[in-house]
Write a structure and sequence with these properties.
By secondary structure, the protein is of the alpha/beta class. Helices cover about 40% and strands about 20% of the residues.
């Protein structure tokens, strides 16, 4: 990390996406930007409170609020995807899907209960690598699998978008204040509504009643799933293009860079 910063000593701006990088200071008078991709709580929050020379970017307003008065946020810039590289689907698969990590915080078990309540088949695509993920799957998720609740594994990018395109909705019943949630943006980009719990950035990504629904209880989430066919998939796509495209993200960062370079 130190050698990397030394190599960049002649640049005008260094943009860091690591956690430890902002702690290193080479003595060179250059603007330093860091994007935080984790919750701004605990040790991470304490770390950033000790690097005032770094212009910290939050990936959602919810994440920025976690900083409170301890950490100064230079800007809030949403993550973006290449929306031009994906196309919309009709949602004709007759199922809802879950996409994420096999982790209690992601609420896979909640998704199963909600889908069963709604009487809609569920397809679960989730990373299953670490011991904790395997334990959660074995002890909590696997016993709930059935003909209508299937674990389809960890998918490639192409397979992921195929799953999302034909889904009635993406079900994202998180238990934690997720800083962003790229799966929700990927779903909207192909026109698929998102049903999520109103935690973290979900309240900013999902427009309740327009591009999906935000509900807390399992019964309310199930009712929301049944309402998804009435939502306009073109509106979901248009919202993703406007707010979460790679071009939009790049323009926001370009504006921040120019602001910092011309700062007195």
């Amino acid at each position: 990390m130190c050698r990397a910063y030394d190599k960049l000593s002649s640049t005008d701006i260094v943009h860091d996406h690591t956690i430890s990088g902002p702690l290193y200071y080479s003595g060179v008078d250059q603007a330093r930007v860091a994007t935080c991709h984790t919750p701004l709580t605990g040790r991470i929050k304490e770390l950033y409170s000790h690097v005032p020379a770094v212009h910290l970017v939050a990936v959602s307003r919810a994440q920025a609020r976690q900083a409170a008065d301890n950490v100064k946020i230079a800007d809030v810039i949403y993550n973006g995807i290449d929306v031009d590289a994906v196309w919309t689907g009709e949602g004709g698969g007759g199922y809802v899907c879950f996409l994420g990590r096999m982790d209690p915080a992601k609420g896979v078990d909640i998704a199963i209960d909600v889908a069963n309540r709604a009487g809609i088949p569920l397809r679960i695509a989730a990373k299953l690598t670490w011991p904790a993920e395997k334990s959660y799957f074995r002890e909590v998720v696997k016993p709930k699998l059935s003909r209508d609740v299937c674990y389809v594994g960890e998918l490639s990018a192409a397979e992921k978008y195929d799953l999302l395109r034909e889904a009635v909705a993406l079900l994202n019943p998180i238990r934690w204040p997720e800083p962003f949630g790229l799966a929700m943006v990927e779903a909207l980009a192909v026109g698929t509504p998102v049903v999520a719990r109103p935690y973290g950035a979900a309240t900013e990504i999902v427009r309740d009643g327009q591009t999906g629904y935000l509900r807390k209880g399992n019964k309310a989430l199930a009712e929301a799933l049944l309402g998804c066919p009435s939502l306009t998939r073109t509106r979901c796509r248009a919202d993703a293009v406007k707010r979460f495209s790679r071009a939009t993200m790049a323009a926001r960062y370009d504006s921040l860079y120019r602001k910092l370079l011309h700062a007195p």
